[in-house]
Amino acid sequence: MKKKQRISDLFYDNRFLLVFSVVAAIAFWLVVVVEFGVEVEREIKGVPISVDYEKIKNDLGLEAFGQKDFTVDITVSGKKYIVEADDIIDDFEVRANTSYVNSAGDNYLAVSVESNSSLYEIVEKSDDEIKVYFDYPGAKEVAVEPEVNFDDKPAAEGYCIGSYLFPESNTVRVTGPETEINKIERVVARASVDGKLRRNKTVEAELVALNEDGETVTSSYISFNRNNNVISLTVPVYKLAELPLTCEFVNRPSDYVNDENLPFIYTVSPAIAQVGVPEKKLESTDSLVIRTVDFSELKEGVNTFRVNASDITNAVVVDGTQEFIVTVTVNGMDSKTFKPSTDLNYVNVPEGLEYELVKLDFSEITLVGPAGSIGSLKAEDIVLVADMSDVPAESSGSVTVPVTLTDNDSWLCGEYTATLLIS
């Protein structure tokens, strides 16, 4: 009986293997020819465009603003197995021609495409040119003006809104193309707030640049030195009250530490005002200080100080008063002028600081006090004090320090300084 032959046995037959190999090779060749040898087109997307910004900057001082990174889509034609290669994008050299850039503004740069390979043909590119904005770099420091819109009445009944506060700096630095920066006249911080406030509220306000006509400078090329072009803004809310107005006196001689011992009388006109004051402060006070008076500002006789309502920082005047008059009358005192000695006492000297007196920035001083105290004084009896508390320990060179006089019942009238050399 003839033995049945299995298919696997055929692969041990050299003649079968020869025929099978030829057929397989022909089939593989047909697949390669059909699948990879045919001519096809392919679009390669996002090929980077090279722009020589550095040359423009070095030659003309112009910089690009806005979009700086550009790409182009390139269509090529060739054998399928060539044009579909993953690394074909590395073959291209795409450049934007900057030869004709010679002024600020929008410039249209021609795009050229070349390939390092000759195995395929470049059919087309998606863009023949790109638009780039060039200008000279500019910058401007601008004060920010708050612009707050309320959905209702700003403050609740019995309250008022004070001057807006900036927890950070109230100035911003604006940078961008010089042409756009030169258009900016103002910068406002715009915010919307629910009304009827009873307490302070801090909001994030959008920074908006305006031109001289109050129109928004909408250029996308300008930027502020703030994150997301916003700035923190506090809306202070004050409690309304009617308060008597007072002054605070500083740098007093030791005999006048207590108010009842002050060597003068003073008045404020108007004496009472309708004001808005922080509610917590109102709980602990029954008057409003509108002026700090240094003893050095007081001479013998009548001293008058004008205080603008808008200059009062610890409250807001709501009754329409624009100015207050502070009158300080120094009676029973005498004044005397001396040519001072150059001997000074130095106080609050930073540790290890070496210094020497260069000169007194004055030739004479005026002392105010009781006639009995200053009448018999001589210049050599007066020892002036140079206060160095504001001199940093690492200082060097020439510095100016205030000169004062510490006495029981007398004071220097005027401001005096001395020049020191720090070594």
Protein described:
The protein has 423 residues and is mainly beta. It folds into five domains: 7-36; 42-135, RNA Polymerase Alpha Subunit, Chain A, domain 2 (Beta Complex), CATH 2.170.120.30; 138-235, Beta Complex (RNA Polymerase Alpha Subunit, Chain A, domain 2); 239-331, YbbR-like domain (RNA Polymerase Alpha Subunit, Chain A, domain 2), CATH 2.170.120.40; 335-422, RNA Polymerase Alpha Subunit, Chain A, domain 2 (Beta Complex). The chain is built from seven helices and 29 strands. It has helices at 7-10, 14-36, 53-60, 80-83, 178-181, 279-282, 371-374, and strands spanning 39-49, 63-65, 70-79, 92-96, 105-115, 120-125, 129-135, 137-150, 159-161, 171-177, 186-193, 201-210, 223-224, 230-235, 237-250, 265-269, 272-277, 288-294, 301-308, 316-317, 323-330, 334-338, 344-347, 355-360, 365-369, 384-387, 397-404, 411-412, 417-422. The strands form seven sheets. It has a six-stranded mixed beta sheet. Strands 9, 15, 17, 18 and 20 form a five-stranded mixed beta sheet that branches. The model has no long low-confidence stretch (mean pLDDT 90).
